[in-house]
Amino acid sequence: MKIYVDEIPPEGLELQGQIEPRKIALGLKLASISFTKSIDVKARVSRTGDEVFVDLSLRAHVEYRCSRCLAKIQDVLKKHFNVNHEAGPGDILEIDEDIRQEMILDCPMKVVCRPDCKGLCPNCGQNLNITGCECTKDKREWSIGSRRLNL
User: Fold this and answer.
1) Looking at residue 138, what is its pLDDT?
2) Could you tell me which of 116, 115, 120, 123 has the C-alpha nearest to residue 131?
3) Labelling 141: which of 31, 61, 122, 148 has CA 20 to 30 A away?
4) 142 Cβ contact partners less than 8 Å away, ≥ 6 residues apart
């Protein structure tokens, strides 16, 4: 989203727009988080001398993957924040990087579909929230490299 400093009137400026998710590359290498639609952005821009103040509201439709059972979870991420920039006459402010950084800060480190999620069986991969598996706890094994660990 670009802000042309010379176009900010004394009473301020209201901007609305959408940003395509690919423009806000989170760079987190997390396959568990993705945007399902464009990110809605509303901005209130004001200027005092060489300072430009931007009051932003974001709304993004996201899809998470449960970190225990890999189920898809749909959610709406809402964020309100402010940014300030020094800018002179003729400057153009690009605030996509500010938006990207705020989105990264709001991404949860671990998402679960529900607090009591049982996850996947480490032996057969069955989703234990749906049904039990044929594995017995005494016989479940994990292979790590050439070592085998009994759980």
Assistant:
1) 53
2) 120
3) 31
4) 122, 123, 148, 149, 151
